[in-house]
């Protein structure tokens, strides 16, 4: 986790040093779809030049649920965005990466996770398309969807508290990797 965070910050610093920083804006954001899963999340997006921004977003869920249900995770998704007109206006296209750790299971309404817990890491990347709506001078809304690659390595356990593993697995996935509807506040 610390290695990914360090690389994200290093990458952001390199981008900031190698671009013209005229008209810089900074936006704070949160994804409402993750809040719907009880997952606190936040992000910051920094303008770089006229048509590019760097978005760094993360989520962390450590809540305890009744009946040993688990939905614990942390996730970081840095992204470079290109705005065809001007940053923070209209359509955008992005390239994102992601890294996370998960501990999920004993979820009664998901068939593969009713009687097991999965613990492991994921990483990958992909592309994003989105749209930004301005709502006044300091507020905005953003909808986005992204697709790409995810590699997962995890261990499957028979119960939430026991250490009895029923196997270790690796899985690769191509498909949706990012979705969001965010509320944005601009620091100018």
UniProtKB/TrEMBL annotation:
This is DUF3575 domain-containing protein. SUPFAM superfamilies: Autotransporter.
């Amino acid at each position: 986790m610390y290695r990914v965070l360090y690389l994200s910050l290093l990458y952001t610093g390199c981008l900031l040093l190698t671009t013209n920083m005229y008209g810089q804006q900074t936006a704070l954001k949160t994804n409402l779809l993750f809040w719907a899963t009880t997952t606190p999340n936040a992000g910051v997006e920094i303008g770089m030049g006229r048509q590019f921004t760097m978005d760094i977003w993360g989520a962390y869920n450590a809540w305890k649920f009744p009946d040993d249900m688990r939905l614990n995770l942390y996730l970081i998704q840095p992204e470079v965005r290109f705005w065809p007109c001007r940053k923070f206006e209209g359509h955008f296209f992005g390239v994102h990466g992601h890294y996370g750790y998960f501990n999920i299971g004993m979820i009664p309404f998901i068939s593969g996770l009713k009687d097991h817990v999965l613990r492991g890491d994921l990483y990958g990347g992909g592309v994003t398309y989105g749209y930004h709506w301005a709502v006044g001078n300091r507020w905005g809304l953003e909808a986005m969807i992204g697709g790409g690659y995810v590699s997962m390595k995890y261990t499957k356990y028979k119960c939430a508290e026991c250490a009895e593993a029923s196997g270790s697995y690796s899985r690769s996935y191509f498909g949706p990797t990012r979705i969001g509807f965010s509320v944005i506040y601009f620091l100018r």
